[in-house]
Amino acid sequence: MSFPRYEKYKDSGVEWLGEVPEHWDVRRIKYVLTKDGYKAGPFGSSLITSELSDEGDILVLTPEHVAIESLDLPFNQYLKESRRNEMAAFFVNLNDVVFPIVGTLGRAMIISVPKPGILNQRLARMSTDIKKILPAYLKLMLTDVDFYKRLDEVESKGAILNHITKEKLINRPVLTPPINEQNQILSFLRSETAKIDELIAEQQRLLELLKEKRQAVISHAVTKGLNPSVPMKDSGIEWLGEVPEHWNVKQLRHIAKIVRGASPRPAGDPKFFSSGNIDGSNTPWVTVAEITKDEKAYLSDVNEYLTSAGVENSQFFEAGTLIFTNSGATLGVPKILAINCCANDGVLAFKDLAEKVDVLFVYHFLSTTTERLRTEMKQGGGQPNLNTDIVKNLSIAVPPLSEQSDIVAFLSNETARFYNLTVEANRAIELLQERRAALISAAVTGKIDVRSLVTDKLAVE
User: Fold this and answer.
1) Closest to 38 (Cα-Cα) out of 79, 88, 85, 96
2) Model confidence over 320-330: pLDDT tens digits?
3) What is the set of domains in the chain, with CATH numbers?
4) 315 CB contacts (<8 Å, ≥6 apart)?
5) What is the mean pLDDT of the chain?
6) C-alpha span between 103 and 159 (Å, rounded)
7) How far is CA 319 from CA 152, 185, 436, in A?
8) Displacement of CA 320 from its chain's centroid (Å)
9) Cα separation of 256 and 392, whole Å?
């Protein structure tokens, strides 16, 4: 859909802004705020976690609150009442716009209740002069993807970690239409972005359905087989249920030697660990993070290596070995090694796999146990952990080798199909998000004139 443009434009006087609608003002942010319109959070040393409470009346706002635009988090922390006066300068108030100044930029929220709490060290707030700019309009600017591109002092501190200085931010030029027109733009964008958000939500629901369907197809294939008319028998295992009559139910200990990886200590010691392998003398180092970084069946590259001394204090595994994460929130994830490597103590390995067992069949089987194992391990409290005995005692129904091969081939085709559908859905989401961002940017920079597209009813909502 194409949108109309304004009839008359003028030179903004700012090179990167270019021409803007003739009746819009170009102001620096500090001139659309109240007298004390900008405040960053205190130094981190003022808010040591151990000195905060799990309950109270003075909430400590964090970027996590801003990310979900809500004051309600399951892990809220509160400032002690005795420090109210000391931290008075950092309170937020009704209609303040709060946003991150460290970390992932491009998010903002409007405070909807009077004085709910204080900023933490990673946040700032702005209080607007509502005769010049509406809080919702300023929030819109702060979430525009292009807003921070013109702050040449946004310093990268890593993949997503950035930092903005006060002077650069409050001196950034912004475009301010008349207040009634700000309302019209906001109303138009609420309506249009809601439509796009619903399309995004549909694609996200599709992704969930694809994930569930994929898992169901794998689970059925590795526990029931591909022939629906084959006679079945009770496996004797409650969660496994009935399996084909000619399949053998075995514990995993009977199809492989299950061993745990080992981690050199202390962690990070350059005597044992290296970030590179230029001369080829170091050995790839596999951690839980490497296994869980994607959903591929094979692990072929790593980011860290062990020296020869590190190898002596770890466990070495050959390419082709099936491995399985055994601790933490990401336990129960299988992978097949495509490289010779060492693995840490958060990893179990299936060595000396029986000749009549296809490693990909066991891989697919283990992938169906992930959620069940995580649920069972959480019930014990504390850090979830799979020791070798638990995994050794897991039961698997093993078909003849030729049937395993047929199942693996079938699942190869099916998982490829689901992968392609998932890629399409993710690409659709990406395009919709780009469209949403472009629409917002065009509206707040005056590239399009939406006034005639807003009904009176929408404009006052």
Assistant:
1) 96
2) 999 999 988 89
3) 1-24+178-237+399-460 (1.10.287.1120), 27-176 (3.90.220.20), 248-397 (3.90.220.20)
4) 259, 260, 261, 262, 342, 343, 349
5) 92
6) 10
7) 47, 59, 45
8) 30
9) 9
